[in-house]
């Protein structure tokens, strides 16, 4: 399938919002195996992007990072969390 990223990314005010990587432990990165899969527009099945096809090791790395972050996050107040999220 053809990837029409030009028209999709042209619609975005902030091109940095169009990430085609995994966010793991505070960083955007590709999968360890380098494999990807196409993301399709469901209305016309055109390819709008691609995403890393994460391996088991990628998944474990993401889960470990989330668990580590949770320890600090759960100690924050609701107000402090809202400041970070904004």
Q: Layout of helices and strands, plus pairs?
A:
Blueprint: H1 5-10, E1 22-24, E2 27-29, E3 36-40, E4 47-52, H2 56-73, H3 78-85
Antiparallel strand pairs: 1-2, 3-4
Number of helices: 3
Broad shape: flat
Instruction: Extract low-pLDDT stretches.
Output: none
Proportion of residues in helical segments: 25-40%
Structure report:
With 86 residues, the protein is an alpha+beta fold. The protein has one domain (5-85). It is 37% helix and 20% strand. The chain contains three helices and four strands. The protein has helices spanning 5-10, 56-73, 78-85; strands at residues 22-24, 27-29, 36-40, 47-52. The strands form two sheets. It has a two-stranded antiparallel ribbon with strand order 1-2. Strands 3-4 form a two-stranded antiparallel ribbon. β1 and β2 (27-29) form a beta hairpin. It is flat and about 45 Å long.
Short description:
The chain is α+β, with helices and mostly antiparallel strands and 86 residues long.
Keywords:
two-stranded antiparallel sheet, alpha+beta, 3 helices, 86 residues
């Amino acid at each position: 399938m053809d990837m029409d990223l030009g028209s999709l990314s042209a619609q975005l005010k902030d091109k940095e919002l169009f990430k085609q990587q995994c966010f793991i432990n505070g960083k955007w990165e590709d999968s360890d195996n380098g494999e990807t899969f196409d993301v399709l527009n469901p209305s016309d099945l055109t390819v709008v992007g691609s995403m890393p096809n994460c391996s088991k090791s990628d998944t474990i790395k993401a889960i470990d990072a989330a668990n580590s972050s949770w320890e600090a996050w759960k100690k924050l107040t609701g107000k402090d969390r809202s400041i970070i999220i904004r």
